[in-house]
Design a protein that fits this description.
Strand content: 5-15%
Largest sheet: 6 strands, mixed
Pfam families: GST_C_3
GO molecular function: glutathione transferase activity
CATH architecture of the largest domain: 3-Layer(aba) Sandwich
Number of strands: 8
Protein name: Glutathione S-transferase
Radius of gyration: 19 Å
Helix content: 40-55%
Shape: globular
Amino acid sequence: MRAHLHDSKDLWSTTLHQTLLCNCIEGEDDESDCAFHFQYMPMRNRIEVPRMLCEARKCKYALELVGFVPWGSDVKTTTPYGKTPTLKNYDKTKTKDLAHEKPIARYLASKLQLFGRDEDERAKIDEVYEQHWSTLRNNGLTHQGENFDMDQLLAITDREIDETPRFQDMRRVNSFSPSQRSLASLRVFDEILLQNQSMYLVGDALSLCDIALFETAYELFREESADFDIGERFNLKYLERFLAHIEDEHPTLREYMKSARRVPRYKRPGYVYINEQVKYWTSFYAT
């Protein structure tokens, strides 16, 4: 899978159409053993959090990767709204598909007991998840957008840092730089972690919003390169502690983030795949 993507150079040139069976043991090559079947293009973006929910519970799942070429010619018209991702055959009758990342993530979080202990916790988890989606995920446009851009963040000046207000004090339409909006968006979650004092965003157990934030924090602290201490420079010590806590307390997530099961990152605007070294784990099979 990775070899094909790097040979293709960018998302637009991908022609693969294959299914990966994840968290299966050797000899299990039947998709019927999987609890869930995802369908998505060969990129992280809107399928990464649903995958990580399954990885947190070491749940067996199938990931059907559809390259951009076959997506447009064969697959697009078979999905509920001509969009991706899709959770296929998710209902009891195994005949219906569920579309769009957020409904899929909420459904999985509920099924896998990662959505709070009661209605009050669930409402707060949903609130924080929505805050993450609308800022750090730029309403689904990955980590390079109007509200959050890692490249812009890492290039912020000392003066911009000093003049960045709290996110809560920014107007929706404002003249702050992309770097400042990115920093303000991140600091929201540092504040939440400070207030909760449990190493989790809501309550005292791992949930959907933690997994969403962990994915962003991991890319920033572990996959991006900077010639300075990111946590210290941006005053994100609670976010940095959160990242280390999730890695220590939830090893299945830590192992997944380093594994070959992850689709390579790409850089916009060309959607060109980044060739990164990864550690290969045994629970990865292609059919």
